[in-house]
């Protein structure tokens, strides 16, 4: 996926998206213990664009809000504020997003045969009418993801994690989407199987002109897949840039830290910068820059003032007071 | 959706039998002596009850067949016993064996019907409460809590008394079994509702349900095709055990005189009638219905326990 094939118009542009969850104790407990309502700010003020035919990756630690963004984009969650605009498809309607889920063991109904799982979108969206047409399409989709026609009669428990993820992909493809949200599709798989699934996804991207919003915490996977990367920390994007730029020249101290975590085969025992502390609780986010309690170069200004996200010369966007132009 | 096989989740009928034969459940059934014996006994009890009109020497509902001269005969192996009254007769001259077969029939029908009705109420409430949450969940589950805070038999008495009073007197005799079924169901649905609700909450958040929601599958279809089948296992076990409980509740109500009328006696009614003659020495009028009732409930419970062990891998 080179930058050449990626068109300028964004498939999806997200503007100042905010999502918080009400995590208050039950009413009775609040009254008895005199606790106020509590809100968890999962996504605060996020803006990004996914280029049509390209792949934007969201990376970050557990709990930074990546999966919430995925669910907002697909419409499983409703945002508190902010806007999402999908590009118009060939039929004049906005593109709709389908999703590939993280857990291959929970994403397929254990009581359905695989062919019925894959046929569900065809039936629900009335993409094929007769039983014969549906059957034909299911077989075609099974072959597309590298399974055989006879696998359709089996149940999900008869497959390995990687094969299940292929079934998930086939189901997502069945609805003929242009836009796929992939929520850590390989994090539950063995490394060898990860590569197979990732290569399948890239092949499908070329074949069907898919646009991906790819969510992961694995920097090597992300590098393999994406055109652009957005690094998230505590519900905010701290840095966003083209993949190779970001890997070659990470600006934000958090991005630098993340890149440090990638294992290096050539220098296995190199000295690493180790992140002190843990991700702060999103229930009580720190003042100023959310990263300042762990940042090796934080100043007094960082704990007082939230750094706005700025666009640098090369098109990289970064939210840090200390990054010079 | 032209043919039956195109329905989502529908299994092919030809392979279903093969699947059943090859399943774990069938394997452990053929390897469990107690389950096999219990199933055999239950099958015999059900078959004799179903075919009671063909097997029984007498129709106990037909007053013309009753012979007052043959009243209170002891069982045949006792002195004074007479064929064909194998287990003796009651004070009306009714053949006990026939009365028991017909009574078992009523007990089984009421047991099955009340389990079915309470399943319907409980599963609907559980699915709706678990899936939609919020206010509707609170209301449904609080009603359930209130129901649970009262003894089952008390609720059944309450319901049957109230409904009986509401019915016009000419319908009371005919409607007795319907009233019983309603009373038992309204006291037993909460267990299903709780089980199904808990399971629904687990399944609702699984990714395959989210995938269906992305396709804008309507909630009732998600509930029916995705969530419901995945909640059935614990419900099946509870329903089997509750079938025994329902028969007992029916017997208790009939024993207390607010169940089946003496004109169409269930096992409980027979026990109540027989109880009055225990001290006059006619023990067979009460003992045989009691044995039949115990046998029925015990085999159902053995099957229920076996099913629970088989379907819950953690107990193996």
From TrEMBL, chain B:
- Signal sequence region: none
What Gene3D superfamilies would the database entry show? MetI-like (1.10.3720.10)
Where can this protein be found? Cell membrane
Please tell me whether the keyword Secreted is annotated for this protein: no
State the source organism's domain of life.
Answer: Bacteria
Bilayer topology: Multi-pass membrane protein
Keyword annotations: Cell membrane, Membrane, Transmembrane, Transmembrane helix, Transport
Read off the CDD domains from this record.
TM_PBP2
The residue ranges of the ABC transmembrane type-1 domain are 104-304
Annotated membrane-spanning segments are: 35-56, 106-136, 148-167, 174-192, 235-256, 277-303
**Coiled coil residues, start to end:** none
Q: Which InterPro entries match?
A: BP-dependent_transpt_permease, MetI-like, MetI-like_sf, OppC_N
User: Which PANTHER family does the entry link to?
Assistant: ABC TRANSPORTER PERMEASE PROTEIN, OLIGOPEPTIDE TRANSPORT SYSTEM PERMEASE PROTEIN APPC
Q: Its family?
A: Belongs to the binding-protein-dependent transport system permease family.
Q: What is this protein called?
A: ABC transporter permease
State the organism of origin. Answer: Aminobacter carboxidus
């Amino acid at each position: 996926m080179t930058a050449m094939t990626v068109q300028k118009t964004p498939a999806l542009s997200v503007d100042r998206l905010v999502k918080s969850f009400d995590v208050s104790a039950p009413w009775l407990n609040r009254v008895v213990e005199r606790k106020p309502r509590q809100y968890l700010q999962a996504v605060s003020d996020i803006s990004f664009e996914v280029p049509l035919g390209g792949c934007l990756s969201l990376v970050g630690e557990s709990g930074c809000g990546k999966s919430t963004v995925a669910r907002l984009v697909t419409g499983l969650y409703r945002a508190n504020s902010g806007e999402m605009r999908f590009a118009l498809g060939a039929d004049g309607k906005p593109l709709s997003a389908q999703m590939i889920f993280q857990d291959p063991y929970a994403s397929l109904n254990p009581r359905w045969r695989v062919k019925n799982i894959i046929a569900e979108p065809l039936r629900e969206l009335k993409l094929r009418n007769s039983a014969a047409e549906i059957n034909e399409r299911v077989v075609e989709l099974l072959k597309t993801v590298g399974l055989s026609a006879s696998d359709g009669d089996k149940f999900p428990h008869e497959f390995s994690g990687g094969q299940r993820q292929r079934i998930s992909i086939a189901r997502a493809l069945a609805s003929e989407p242009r836009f796929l949200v992939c929520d850590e599709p390989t994090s539950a798989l063995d490394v060898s199987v990860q590569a197979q699934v990732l290569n399948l996804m890239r092949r499908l991207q070329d074949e069907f002109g898919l646009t991906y919003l790819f969510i992961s915490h694995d920097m090597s996977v992300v590098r393999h897949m994406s055109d652009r990367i957005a690094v998230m920390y505590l519900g905010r994007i701290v840095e966003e840039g083209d993949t190779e730029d970001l890997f070659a020249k990470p600006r934000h101290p958090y991005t630098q830290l993340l890149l440090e975590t990638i294992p290096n085969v050539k220098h296995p025992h190199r000295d690493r910068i180790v992140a002190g502390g843990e991700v702060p609780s999103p229930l009580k986010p720190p003042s100023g820059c959310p990263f300042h309690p762990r940042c090796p170069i934080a100043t007094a200004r960082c704990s007082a003032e939230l750094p706005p996200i700025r666009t640098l010369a090369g098109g990289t966007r970064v939210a840090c007071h200390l990054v010079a132009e | 959706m032209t043919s039956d096989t195109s329905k989502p989740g529908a299994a092919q009928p030809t392979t279903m039998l093969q699947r059943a034969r090859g399943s774990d459940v069938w394997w452990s059934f053929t390897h469990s002596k107690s389950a096999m014996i219990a199933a055999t006994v239950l099958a015999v009890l059900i078959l004799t009850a179903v075919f009671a009109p063909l097997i029984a020497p007498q129709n106990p509902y037909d007053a013309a067949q009753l012979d007052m001269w043959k009243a209170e005969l002891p069982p045949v192996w006792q002195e004074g016993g007479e064929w064909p009254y194998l287990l003796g007769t009651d004070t009306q001259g009714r053949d006990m064996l026939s009365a028991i077969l017909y009574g078992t029939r009523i007990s089984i029908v009421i047991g099955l019907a009340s389990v079915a009705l309470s399943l319907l109420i409980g599963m609907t409430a559980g699915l709706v409460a678990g899936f939609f949450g919020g206010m509707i969940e609170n209301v449904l589950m609080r009603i359930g809590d209130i129901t649970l805070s009262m003894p089952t038999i008390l609720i059944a008495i309450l319901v049957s008394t109230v409904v009986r009073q509401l019915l016009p007197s000419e319908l009371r005799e005919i409607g007795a079994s319907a009233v019983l079924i309603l009373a038992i169901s309204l006291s037993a649905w909460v267990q299903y509702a709780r089980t199904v609700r808990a399971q629904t909450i687990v399944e609702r958040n699984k990714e395959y349900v989210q995938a269906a929601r992305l396709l804008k599958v309507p909630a009732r279809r998600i509930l029916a095709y995705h969530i419901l089948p995945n909640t059935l296992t614990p419900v099946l076990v509870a329903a089997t055990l509750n079938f025994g409980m329902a028969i007992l509740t029916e017997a208790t109500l009939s024993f207390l005189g607010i169940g089946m009328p003496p004109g169409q006696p269930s096992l409980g009614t027979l026990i109540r009638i027989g109880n009055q003659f225990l001290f006059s020495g006619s023990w067979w009028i009460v003992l045989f219905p009691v044995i039949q009732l115990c046998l029925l409930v015990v085999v159902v419970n053995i099957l229920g326990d076996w099913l629970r062990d088989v379907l819950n891998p953690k107990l193996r």
